[in-house]
Every structure is written in C-alpha cells, then in structure tokens.
TrEMBL record:
Protein name listed in UniProt: DNA topoisomerase 1
Enzyme Commission no: 5.6.2.1
Catalytic activity: ATP-independent breakage of single-stranded DNA, followed by passage and rejoining
Interaction with DNA: region residues: 185-190
Biased composition (Basic residues): 9-21
Record keywords, A-Z: DNA-binding, Isomerase, Magnesium, Metal-binding, Topoisomerase, Zinc, Zinc-finger
Length: 724
C-alpha cells in the first residue's frame, strides 16, 4: 500500500567552517620609542613595533676594542646598560614568526640592523631589512612589502669610519692627557674643525686694517625734481679708491656747486632662482641664521618632526618631514606631482615650475632632500599641534620646499652714471617685477635684494643738481669668526664629515673647552690653540683639510662597494703609527694653569679656580685631593627677584640654553627665558621688566596682570642677547 507521506530527502551533512589561518605575528624593530609609537598605529595588532634605543652593540669604552694586527677586527660588546633591552628583544624575536629591522636609512642605521641581526640569530642575507624615507602610513606599509638584505657595503663603511675614529681618538688622546691635561681628546673631524677656528683667529689677530673713504651724494633730477642717492665711483669713468680724508675732501670740494650730467642709463632684467630644498647642512645653516639655533638643537627638533606628531582628526599621528640626515637634493616624483598640483591651485600656474635639483657627487642619493611628507599640510593649519620650535622648523622646511617648485623672481635693474667734471658717481635701482618663489620663502641672503629701490626715470644727457654730499671714513675688516652656520658650510664645502657629524662635532669641541661661544661666534680658547699646535706639529695628516677630505672620499668608496674597508685602514695606519712614536718622543710637557677666580673656598680659604667638565665650567678648590670642594659658577645680573628680593642669576639648562633664575632656588621658583632689565621698573605697576629679542623684540612687564610693553630697536634688542 502506497504511503501518502512525501518522501523525505536525506539531510545533507553540514560542512564545518574551515578554521581561520592564524595571521603571522611580526616584530618590527626601529631605533626610537617615538617612531615605534607612530608606526604601531599604522600597522595594527599583527605587528609588535619596539625600539632598540639606538646602538645596542658597539666597541667598548674602556679599551681600544680594535685588533690592529688582525685586519683591524672590531671587538664588539653589548653596550653597558643595554643588556636587559637586548634580552627583551631576543624574547620578542622568539615569539614572532618574522623579524623586520627598520632602523634609520643611513650607514649608522644599517650597522645597527646588522648588529641586531647577529644578536637575534637572523640571517643578514635574508630579506629582513626595511627602510623608509618618511614615516607616513603609505610609506611604511609600502616599505614593509619590499624588505631587502642588509647592505654590507653600508655596514662596512660605518665600520671603517668607527674603527678609524676609534684608532685616532684612543691613540692620540692619551698623549694629550700625559703632556697637556687629562680629559682632552683628539678626533679625525673635531681636530680639523678646531684647527679651522684657530687658523681663522690667527688671521684676525694678524690682520692690518686699511683706511678708505666713501662719498655719498644726494642728487636731484632736474626734469622730474625727484631725489636719488649716488656714490662716488672714480674719475673719468675709471674706478678709484679714496685712501685718506684729504682725497675725499678734494673730491667734495671739486663737486661743490657743479651740475651733474647723466652720461649712462642701463636697464637689465635679472632672474633669481629659488634655492633647492634643504639638506642637513643647509637646514642647520638657515636655522642658525634665522633663529640662532645651534646645529644640535635644530636636529633634535627635526628628529621629532620626522618621528611623528599627533595631529588628530583624519591625519592622526604622522611624520611631518622626510629623513633629516641627508646630503641629497633628489625629490620623489610623487612629491613633485603633489607640489605641482597644490601650488597651482594655491598660487596660480604662472607661479609654478617643476624642478629637480642635482646633488653633488658624494651625496647619498638613495635619500631625498628634506621636505614635508605632504605639502598639503600647511604650517599655519597645524600650528596649535606643534611646539613653538617645531612650528618654526616645519615652516622653514615647508616654505623652502614649496619655493623650490616655483618660478624665479624677476627684477628690473637700473644702473645710472652721473658725472660732475671728471668725477664719476653711480646710482643703482632695483625693482621686483615678479615675486615668484619669494611669495613663499626668502633666504637670508636674498632679503636685501627683495626690497625695491627705484630711481626716477632718466635719460642720457639729463641734468641733476647736488643737494648734499658727505664723506665717511672706513677701515677694511678682518675675516669674521665662524658661526655654527659658517663652520658647517665650510666643512661641507671642503668635504669634511657627513650630515650626521656636523652637529656633534661642534658640540664636542665646545664641551672639551677647545672653543667657546661668544654670542653667535665660535672663539678658540688657549687650550684649543695649544692642542692644535701639538696636532699640527705631530699629526699633520690628521688636521690637514685635504687629507681628511680624501679619507671621507675613501669611506664613500667603501659604501659604493669600490674599496675594501680593511685595505683603506691598512693604507692609513703605518704612517699614523710612525707619527705616534715620534710624538711620544718629541712632545714636551705643557702646563696650562687654571684661571684663578676671586671666589674663596669656604672650606680651606684658597682662591677657587675655573675647571671644565663636559657640562661646562665650574669652580673647584686647587687644594684637591686634600680639599674636594666644588661649586657652580655664579653669574649675577644685578637685578632683584620680583618674588623674594634675591638676585636673579644667569643659568644654563641641561641642553645649554641660557635662562634666568633666582639665587634662592628652589625655595624661590622665579624663572624666565627673557633677559631681566636692569635699573628700570615697569612705569605702570613698578614690577620687573623683561627684554625679548628676535624679530618681535620688545620690553614687557613680568606681572601677568599688567599689559605694559613697548617695542625696541634692533641695537637695544641685541644687547645681552642669548645666542644659545
């Protein structure tokens, strides 16, 4: 009998969902915690981003650490204090399925990655190395897709430099300790820099000024009745220098009451091209000129901009500039495209010109020039997210890069020659007819030319009359002392050092006491002269500019794979070893007496003397070791503290910046960055006045409830100006 129930289909077995394949856990090692924090946000939970805190492995401090007789083999050790960090990195590496090394994209960074690879048992031939020129989400993710092997040419270039500098420093320094003073040091780059500063000082001391006179005349064009300034040029159109007041008076007497005739009017058009984007040295120079920043300070600020700034919103945390240790002028095509579009939309196509700049031969062209990671992030739009210093440096970098992709500025130049008898005077006019890149950025050296100086329209044969004329005495000036900016420029031009060495070189020669700062100038000390003389007489190669530049070129050859690093050292060492043997025999003991102060040691009654440490000068009792009394140097201002009535002292922060604090610190917490004004009180409330220097120089009241302030002129602002 058939059933009326429908036939039931056999139930299909349900397939179990396939287990998700666990994502690989990756460890990414960078150098700094700030950079690690920025990158971690880009990569998410599958990545663990940690910092090596710079070098973990290096040569020992207590010994030479180089086997000179065995192909200069370095004896590397774990840096003291980094043992627990290295242990932690090893644990994290064992947990990870893959380890990527993302230290900085230069010789030092490559060496750090190589040391880490060996310590963490990573094959340096494997694709473990990641580099990026900028810390943005796109750049970091793209770099991680294309890891490479560790570049042993870069590693060997760093090893060669490290070993060479170690040999020079550790072999010469003990001689200086024995013959001159403990705590001194010599260095392959620092000794040359010190010599350059000493040589410049000798040029200044030996300079013999020559007298000369100039004559400025104010003429009035008779056709337009407009006045213009002209300067005495010579006689009968030939240039002549006036060397005495009598000669100047003769010219003044001759032109008095005479009519001038315009004998030549020439108009030309001149273009001024923008500067290329910044390299390390040009950034340090411009920051020194514009903000009086020392090179080390500029690099610290730039480092923070490179590693990442929290902007919030859609941008989140982002590195604002590309890598800041570079001597390359190359710009990536993507950056050029973005700049062209942005500048066209912002300023108009007539202001825009796409430009690629040529780097010098020795530049590491794998890097780019220093530029904003995105030109669309304008400085003013993120000002509230940056510190004052970060804003200044970012604005400088942004403007310089933007200007580098713009049209040239155009000037109309007018040169007028006017004669009164045989006496020839010249007047020059300059008018900006198209600002071009100067709409965005004006370099320090451009500022004079930026200002227009127009002359009245004149033609040959026109007449002018003399309104007044004055003579002025001058003397030729000696070459100026080096500033940070000037020294960096000359080191770079002569091929001494590399982008990463300029700032530490200057810091070292100042901290060692070979050079001291006087406002913006670097002035050699007696110690600097003594050590330089020893180096010139006994180690002439080490302080020879051409020899040092040649060694830099050799190190570049190692980096390019053209030279073997051990061979380079073998060529250097024999002559150096001979110089060492002779120096031990030839250098006599030199005693540099400590400068005696008028401060009495309260423990034993002796006059204390000035001593120098790596933190700067201090006072010490000359009775050491019987009396070990020391004290900081007290530099008073003669200004009364507004909080407790004590004296305000000049002090220095840990980074060397000058500030002003009360003598009763920490009981009294008065502190100011701006200079206290002596012998003047606020006319409105009677409180302390402070002097602010720089572009917006002013004197203002310390009392925050009082709004008194007044502008001051440049000369007044420059008195006692803090250059640190």
């Amino acid at each position: 009998m058939a059933s009326n129930e429908p036939i039931k289909k056999k139930a299909a077995k349900k397939k179990k969902p396939a287990a998700k394949k666990a994502a690989k856990k990756k460890l990414l090692i960078v150098e700094s915690p700030a950079k690690a924090g920025t990158i971690q946000k880009y990569l998410g939970d599958n990545y663990n981003v940690v910092a090596s805190m710079g070098h973990v492995i290096d040569l020992p401090k207590s010994t030479l650490g180089v086997d000179v007789d065995n192909d200069f083999e370095p004896k590397y050790i774990t840096i003291r204090g980094k043992g627990s960090l290295l242990t932690s990195l090893k644990k994290e590496a064992k947990k990870a399925d893959e380890v990527l090394l993302a230290t900085d994209p230069d010789r030092e960074g490559e060496a750090i990655s190589w040391h880490l690879a060996r310590a963490l048992n990573i094959d340096p031939e494997s694709s473990c190395r990641v580099t990026f020129n900028e810390i943005t989400k796109t750049a970091v993710k793209e770099a991680i897709k294309h890891p490479r092997r560790i570049d042993m040419n870069l590693v060997n270039a760093q090893q060669a430099r490290r070993v060479l500098d170690r040999i020079v420093g550790y072999k010469i320094s003990p001689i200086l300790w024995e013959k001159v003073k403990r705590g001194l040091s010599a260095g392959r780059v620092q000794s040359v820099a010190t010599k350059m500063i000493c040589d410049r000082e000798e040029d200044i001391l030996n300079f013999v000024p020559e007298e000369y006179w100039t004559i400025e005349a104010e003429l009035k064009d008779l056709a337009t009745k407009k006045k213009f300034a002209a300067r005495y040029y010579g006689d009968n159109g030939e240039e002549r220098r006036l060397s005495s007041g009598e000669e100047a008076e003769e010219v003044l007497s001759d032109i008095n009451g005479r009519e001038f005739e315009i004998t030549s009017v020439k108009e030309t058009v001149k273009k001024r091209n923008p500067q290329p984007p910044f390299t390390t040295s040009t950034l340090q120079q411009d920051a020194s000129r514009k903000f009086s920043y020392q090179a080390s300070r500029t690099m610290q600020i730039a480092q923070s901009l490179y590693e990442g700034v929290k902007l919030g919103g859609r941008l989140g945390t982002i590195g604002l500039i590309t890598y800041m240790r570079t001597d390359s002028l190359r710009i990536a095509d993507d950056a050029l495209n973005e700049a062209e579009q942005f500048l066209t939309e912002t300023y108009g196509s007539e202001f825009v010109r796409r430009r690629q700049y040529k780097s010098k031969k020795s530049a590491q062209d794998a890097h780019e020039a220093i530029r904003p990671t995105s030109i669309t992030i304008r400085p003013d739009a993120i000002k509230d997210k940056l510190t004052t210093e970060q804003y200044k440096i970012y604005k400088l970098i942004w403007e310089r890069f933007a200007a580098s992709q713009m049209e040239s500025a155009v000037y109309r130049l007018t040169a007028v020659t006017a004669n009164a008898g045989i006496r020839t005077f010249r007047a020059n006019g300059s008018e900006v007819t198209f600002k071009g890149y100067m709409s965005v950025y004006v370099e320090s050296s451009d500022k004079k030319e930026e200002k227009s100086k127009t002359l009245p329209p004149m033609n040959e044969g026109d007449k002018a009359e003399l309104e007044k004329a004055d003579s002025k005495q001058h003397f030729t000036q000696p070459p100026p002392r080096y500033s940070d900016a000037a020294l960096i420029r000359e080191l770079e031009e002569k091929g001494i050092g590399r982008p990463s060495t300029y700032a530490p070189t200057i810091s070292t020669i100042v901290s060692r006491g070979y050079v001291q700062r006087s406002k913006k100038q670097l002035v050699p000390t007696e110690l600097g002269f003594v050590t330089t003389d020893i180096m010139k007489q006994n180690f002439k190669d080490i302080v020879d500019v051409d020899f040092t530049a040649h060694m830099e070129s050799e190190l570049d050859g190692v980096e390019d794979g053209e030279l073997d690093w051990v061979t380079v050292l073998k060529q250097f060492y024999p002559q150096f070893e001979q110089d060492l043997e002779q120096a031990h025999k030839n250098i006599e003991k030199i005693e540099i007496k400590d400068k005696v102060s008028d401060v009495i040691c309260e423990k034993c009654g002796r006059n204390m003397v000035y001593k120098l440490s790596k933190f700067g000068q201090f006072l010490a009792c000359p009775g050491y070791p019987e009396c070990k009394n020391t004290k900081p140097i007290r530099v008073g201002t003669g200004v009364e503290c507004p909080k407790c009535g004590g004296e305000i002292l000049i002090k220095h922060s840990r980074k060397g910046k000058v500030y002003f604090g009360c003598e009763h610190w920490p009981k009294c917490d008065f502190m100011a960055w701006d200079t206290p004004v002596k012998d003047e009180k606020c006319p409105e409330c009677g409180s302390l006045l402070l002097k602010k220097t720089g572009r917006n120089a002013k004197i203002y009241c310390y009392n925050e409830n009082c709004k008194y302030e007044r502008k001051i002129d440049k000369n007044e602002a420059d008195e006692n100006k803090d250059e640190g």
